[in-house]
Amino acid sequence: MISVDDCGPNGTGKSGPRGEEIQGLPSWVNTMPNQNYEPLNVEPEEIPIESIDLADVRSFVAYWNALKRERFAAPWKRFDLMALDAESVPRVVVVDVLTDPVRFKYRFWGTANTNTKGIDMTGKSLDDFPLVRRTVAWAEYNRVVAERRSIAFKDKLVLPETSGTPLRFKAAFDQIMVRLPLSSDGKTVDHIVSLACWEKSPRD
Question: What is the CATH number of the domain that holds 164?
Fold first, then answer.
């Protein structure tokens, strides 16, 4: 049986070169349709937001900057999802930043996130998120709060199917996640709005 710890960014599951059997996993894994994809998520890397050549990201960040002006973050009360591009909204996520201790609750989870990741996190805490991605999301959110700045991350996801037995993995896809801080008092980050961009990885 594969544990969720084997599937996360710091998991211990290993795979050999393309076409070779994945070591340490049940034999049925090697006959899966997606056997060419490693059942691990790549550790996200920070990328410059200005390097992302996607129109929806440029529009998303431009709207935030227009509200932010000289502040470190856009005001929470002025941020309006309806002002965003209609095709972007389904890929948006908004979290409330709670304190003592720091934790994150999903206020808005766009429908495209549900369709892509197979889970609806609306109204739920990050603690309810599958462990396979929970630590990654927590680290990204925490950086936005601690550093009080917008940050973009890029990584490759290989997510487990949310239904069916035995456990299977979806095809790999690249993800760019742009996370922007929002503030109610102009001093602390109390909300974070994110836009996800995905591209299915080609089969090698």
Answer: 3.30.450.20
- Give the rounded distance of the alpha carbon of 195 from its chain centre: 9
Percentage of the chain modeled with pLDDT above 90: 58
pLDDT tens-digit map of 143-199: 999 999 999 999 887 766 555 555 455 666 789 999 999 999 999 999 999 999 987
The burial of 186, by beta-carbon neighbours within 10 Å (0-12 exposed, 13-18 middle, 19 or more buried), is given as: exposed
Binned at pLDDT 50, 70 and 90, residue 31 comes out as very low
Centre a 10 Å sphere on the Cβ of residue 79 and count the other Cβ atoms it contains: 19
Report strand pairing: 92-98 vs 191-200.
antiparallel
Q: Please say whether the beta carbons of 104 and 95 come within 8 A.
A: yes
The amino acid occupying position 146 is: A
Vertex 25: Cα angle to 19 and 28 (nearest 5)? 70
Show the domain range for 119.
45-200
Q: Would residue 14 count as lying in a domain? A: no
Contact 93, 107 (CB under 8 A): no
Nearest CA-CA partner of 25 in 33, 15, 17, 34: 15
What gap in Å lies between CA 88 and CA 95, rounded to an integer?
17
* 42, two tokens: 């790549």
Distance CA(175)–CA(120), nearest Å, equals 18
